[in-house]
Amino acid sequence: MKNTTTFLSIIVCILLVSPFSALAAEETQMKEQIKVILAPVKGWLIYQESIVPSPDSEHVACVARKGNKFAIIYDGEVQKEYDLIGKDTPIFSWDSKHIAYKAKEGNKWMVVLDTKEGKPYDNVSVPVFSPDSKHLAYTVQYGAMQTVVLDGKELGVYDGIPPQNNLIFSNDSKRFAFVALKGEKMVVNVDGKESEIYYQISYPAFSPDSKHIVFPVKTKNDEQFMVFDGKEGPRYDATGTFAFSHDSSRFVYSAKLKDKAFMVSDGEEQSRYTDVAIPIFSPDSKTMAYNAIEGKKSYMVINGKKGKAYDEVRDLAFSLDSSRSILTVKDGEKWYAIESGKKSPPYDQIFFPSYSPDSKHVVYAAVREKKWFVVYDGKEGPEYDLVYDMIFSPDSQHLLYMVANAEKKWSVVIDNKESTWYDGVAVPNFTPDSKHHVYIVRDKNMWFAVVDGVEGKEKFLGFLKGSEFKFDNDTRMHILGMHMPPEATLGPNIVNLNIELAD
């Protein structure tokens, strides 16, 4: 019998991961059309692993080679040739309107934005787009020095700039920060201005409303503290995870002093424990909770009040209206879900607790004697070898999830009804009006779309990793796939599969 890992490996192949299956009372009428986005270009070898879809799943870019030259092919058009194209590029902007990539010409590297070349340097990093797609930043090396280039402008000169996750835009895209080395010490460059110099700095973060910035600091004597909008906080033996509330009005972080750990919430130290974990805010920002450990027992602390002791506390989820919460805990050898104060029956494991968009329904996956099932509003569903990815429709009236059985393989369950069983299922979604659902399946080594249980006629070698169903409206959707037409001589095309449903 195949195990869970084998089942999951079916889905990971060349596409995304997820699940789905049946809803409409009458058989859905669907019309499929294929539009070629990227066709093989004679003389050019396309690197399949470099193919990148745009966020809106309408464009494709990739790296190709011809002899000793490399180029980006964007929506089928070969761009300028270079001696090399940098790893992990091209990338798309968030609005899908721009591409950027690293290119080498001679001994110099540059970043190319669309077709505009940046200044050449000894080396450049993978570029980063701002959330509004209007700004582009990257790190460059020239000689022994480094700097950050933002919209073509160099920001300071430094001895080093940490490369990973260090170019940070605020949510409104109006602010920008990064950490840099000056000699053996560090600074944060925020909006073009340097902070105080510190011995060691961790990566900064902006508040959700973009008005505040915070970063952790470590001294040469191993003291640690937080710097909030330039103001230094108290010194501790260690500082850990931190979080802003969703409305940016509150800030909390974990700290340690001697052998005790605690949260510092809005500048005030909370109760001390053996250890504390990641702080969580409710959507309305009025509730702050975290896991605390005292000896061998765990607690969920909510707004400063310590809850009941358990052997382990794992997941806490809030409803979107913040009126309800669900907590998973281990008591003895069994796991329980505690929803709004009510304790579930015992299970061997509990995973993925969540609420419907209207906050009226709650669901989680549970395991008993190696069999998985969904618990929906307290009612247990059928047993399977695996349950994966429970999804509510936008109107909260429908629930679907993917299941696996060793003999039958994969199916999608929607409103307690199983779909046809397939070799694989992936990228499920509901239409915005919640009237239809769609997913892709693998059957006999070919992939195709399924809408409301109706199988599409167009067959594909696979669907592009990173692409998913995008909706033009309630009845039109598209996704990027790899298609081999009968007349193909150079290899498969990357196409946009457009699906239109009858009204």
- Total DSSP E strands: 54
| Beginning-to-end CA distance, first to last residue | 44 Å
- Indicate the mean pLDDT: 92
- Largest sheet, strands/sense/barrel: 5 strands, antiparallel
Estimate the global geometry from the Cα principal axes. flat
The tally of helices reads 1
Poorly predicted ranges: 1-22
How much of the sequence lies in strands comes to over 45%
Compute the CA-based radius of gyration. Answer: 26 Å
Main structural class: mainly beta
Question: What portion of residues is helical?
Answer: under 10%
Write structural notes for this entry.
The protein is mostly beta strands. Helices cover 2% and strands 50% of the residues. It contains 1 helix and 54 strands. The strands form 12 sheets. Strands 1, 51, 52, 53 and 54 form a 5-stranded antiparallel sheet that branches. Strands 2, 3, 4, 5 and 6 form a 5-stranded antiparallel sheet that branches. The protein is flat and about 70 Å long. It starts with a helix and ends with a strand. 41% of the residues are buried. Mean pLDDT is 92; it is low at 1-22.
